[in-house]
Amino acid sequence: KQEVTQIPAALSVPEGENLVLNCSFTDSAIYNLQWFRQDPGKGLTSLLLIQSSQREQTSGRLNASLDKSSGRSTLYIAASQPGDSATYLCAVRPGFGNEKLTFGTGTRLTIIP
Amino acid sequence: NAGVTQTPKFRILKIGQSMTLQCAQDMNHNYMYWYRQDPGMGLKLIYYSVGAGITDKGEVPNGYNVSRSTTEDFPLRLELAAPSQTSVYFCATLRDESRTDTQYFGPGTRLTVL
To answer: What backbone phi and psi angles, to 5 degrees, belong to A84?
Structure first.
């Protein structure tokens, strides 16, 4: 059974710093991995999706990497801003034809002005 | 496009009561999902559907039922509410016609069972 872990559960950093969020998964046979953002009281919004054949994806100040062999992904946020404060969740999709995602428990990020 | 809509936004139930959480989408996506999110936890899949008339259980289906009579709607039914069902419920959709397709989430329904 796939298990997805995100450590730490919470992180606070001063504004302007670069930071890395971690995601690890136990079964390397994945179709893709996604990073989502969740604001308090809101639903999830997809940030980046990395296919199993890719090593990284970038969108603006965000860069996500994937190392399938070690079962790890990181989300790098450059020049953090207070508006980046949210909970970030990663999710893995097991395979083509299997559309069910397994989610991590998330990292609650607070950017201190 | 409204995307994925969920009603109600909040609800308080008494133990043993029943209710239906509504989910509707206007994106013509085939796949629809129901998740629950408990405090400090990730999302757990309750039920999902790959198209109208087809539903299947997820990781935590006990105490819930679903139906999918149309592409647009995917209601979640709680028959005998229990305090363990206190949670935030999210509906999501997926087109899945491309390797880069991702799930779209509704705003959630916060349910408290007392």
So the answer is: -80, -10
